[in-house]
Design a protein that fits this description.
single chain; alpha+beta; Outer Surface Protein A, domain 3; three-stranded antiparallel beta sheet; elongated
């Protein structure tokens, strides 16, 4: 049995849930999200609780049961609280600035990288003296925030010798030992 799929999703006040034609639409103060329901999974709403059920105990139905419940729970959290990802730029001369939804990154290449961030994802940058520059991404869609953060990180992943690059806030990069000088003279 899927323990995740069996757990009910509590709908907080101010959140509207609409289930129709294999689509679930959840609206809240931060926005509206829609998810298609696949694989025979049924979604029902009783008062302020969303329940997810599956037709059988087959492997695919069990997998889709837990996945669907997790996606719907993420949508409820997204439209009420929202999601935030913070990226740090570790390296000499690494900088970030934004003009609205356009992010300008200076990551040690011969040119700056310009990234257009989707409208549903708000971007801001912090340049604090003595600390690494930070990029803060905020949205009601967890998938979108993760995808944009991953795209930005892919421009300069942290390298294993000095740890320079773009990393998630709190990410630990294991460093390798470099070449060691031979003791023979």
């Amino acid at each position: 049995m899927s323990r995740i799929g069996k757990a009910p999703i509590t709908v907080p006040p101010g959140v509207e849930v609409n289930i129709a034609n294999g689509m679930v639409t959840i609206s809240g103060k931060l926005g509206t999200l829609t998810q298609a329901i696949v694989g025979g999974i049924t979604v029902s709403q009783e008062e302020n609780v969303i329940l997810v059920n599956r037709p059988s105990d087959s492997r695919t139905d069990r997998a889709m049961h837990g996945l669907t419940r997790a996606l719907l729970a993420n949508m409820v959290i997204g439209v009420t609280e929202g999601y935030t990802k913070t990226l740090e730029l570790i390296g000499v001369g690494f900088r970030a600035s934004n003009q609205g939804q356009v992010l300008d990154l200076s990551l040690g290449y011969s040119h700056n990288i310009m990234v257009r961030v989707p409208e549903d994802c708000k971007v801001s940058t912090e340049m604090v003296k003595g600390k690494a520059p930070r990029i803060i991404l905020t949205s009601h869609d967890k998938h979108l925030v993760g995808m944009v953060a991953s795209k930005i990180r892919s421009f300069r992943k942290p390298e294993p010798y000095k740890g320079k690059g773009v990393r998630y806030m709190g990410e630990i990069v294991r460093k390798k030992a470099g070449k060691s000088a031979s003791g023979k003279a």
